[in-house]
Amino acid sequence: MLVPAQYDTDVTTWSPQGRLFQVEYAMEAVKQGSCAVGLVSSTHVVLATLKRAQNDLSSYQRKMFKIDDHMGIAIAGLTADGRVLCKYMRNECINHRFVYEAPMPIGRLVRQVADKHQVCTQRSWKRPFGVGLLVGGYDRTGPHLYNTCPSGNYYEYKAMAIGARSQAAKTYLEKHYETFPGAAVDDMVQHGLRALAATLSEGELTKANCSVAIVGKNAPYVVLDDDDVEPYLQMLKAEEDAGGEAPMAADDAAAGGEPAAAEGGAAAGGDAAAGGDAAGEAPMETSES
After folding, report:
1. 112 Cβ partners below 8 Å, 6+ apart?
2. N- to C-terminal Cα distance for the chain?
């Protein structure tokens, strides 16, 4: 059996199975990054990311970047690679505005970024970008959400999650995506945070470890951090508490009904016993007479 190490020393070396291991390693780096979620309504795009800290003494690392007033990205994977692509995308948007005096279409920029990804898979002196992007924006054709891959592929989505344990978020999005087109912005943020919370292995979402970005019709790109995202987390917690109290109330009601049923049964049993005694006494009197 051939081991990958024989074919992964160069990004342009194919394995006998037709695989480029360096590209696959870059895609694995995306899966190891902290989760990022994106979802689209009929008028807005919402991005949500989970931020990580190296230790208790360090700050949380940014995973969300503004590209232009009508566009932003959320990243999963190597943050340094994400910053390089962010700078490239900002320059492209500036050049487009200077030449055409209009914001750059989302799809055109994503295609250019994907081409930049792909070039790195066929140059022996380069390595693939170890980062995946969720690109959200609003242009003249409406809201859009794209996902780019280190392999050079890109796709447009109604909702998407990338990064560590993103399958849990995808499962949530698949269950609710049909309600997204007509949802309000606040509801979309709640959906994004719920999907993000599903990816947590321990702990809970706090204002320090998550960020939310919103962009849409007549709404320039804005990032909500710290105190700005706290109201949405409070709403989410209130819903969870309300959902937890309902089963408890049902249990209490069921528990409260059991003694009544028992008492009713005992009373019925007592009446039946009394009836039995009365029925037993009558034959005795008849026999004596």
Report:
1. 92
2. 104
- pLDDT tens string 162-220: 999 999 999 999 999 999 999 999 999 999 999 999 999 888 899 889 999 999 999 99
264-to-87, 250, 251, 260, 271 alpha-carbon distances in Å: 76, 21, 20, 6, 10
85: closest CA among 58, 120, 46, 60? 120
Distances in whole angstroms, Cα of residue 230 to Cα of each of 46, 203, 210, 211:
16, 16, 10, 10
Q: What is the DSSP string of 249-278?
A: HHHHHHHHHHHHHHHHHHHHHHHHHHHHHH
HSE (CB half, 13 Å, CA atoms) of 57?
A: 0
Does the pLDDT of residue 263 top 80, yes or no? no
> Number of C-alpha atoms within 13 angstroms, CB side, residue 7?
15
Which pLDDT tens digit goes with each residue over 127-149?
999 999 999 999 999 999 999 99
Which of 1-5, 119-123, 237-241 is predicted with the least confidence, judged by mean pLDDT?
A: 1-5
Lookup: tokens for 237? 């917690």
C-beta of residue 29 within 8 angstroms of C-beta of residue 127 = no
